[in-house]
């Protein structure tokens, strides 16, 4: 039993070592020390650079506060992309599947306005939809609402049962 384990471990080591020797069609080995440590070194450098930038920003902000200056608002970055249907999407992270356009927002140039009273729009929409009447504003009577809630609960029970069946298999 012990020799079988030893033999299996040796075969795995030989297989791993062969990846350093066997060449791909382009002439490069399948695995190299540079591939292993190069990516780690790049990630470490990127993390170090990001940390250095953030530390410098914090130091500059602290110096500004000591000098009596108001802290500068940081610029926000948003990403914009279009899906296959032509709809535009906005996010704080880029979409990895499509090219995202980068937009930087300067908070000093953003104006926030108070919302207008939109009650008149709601009234017009309700009249246009014909929802005002004997059943109230939403057009449903209480028994319809009760049935809708029961149907939703039944669907939830079915989904829970299905999830349990999938977990058991």
Tell me what the structure shows:
- Strands 2-1-3 form a 3-stranded antiparallel beta sheet, with no helix packed on it.
- Among the domains are: 73-112, no CATH class; 119-168.
- The protein is built from 4 helices and 3 strands; from the N terminus they run ααβββαα.
- A hairpin with a 5-residue loop joins β1 (76-82) and β2 (88-91).
- With 169 residues, it is mainly alpha-helical.
- The model has no long low-confidence stretch (mean pLDDT 79).
Task: Please outline the helices and strands.
Elements: H1 2-21, H2 33-66, E1 76-82, E2 88-91, E3 101-105, H3 119-129, H4 142-168
Structure described in brief:
By secondary structure, the protein is mainly alpha-helical. 54% of the residues lie in helices and 9% in strands. β1 and β2 (88-91) form a beta hairpin.
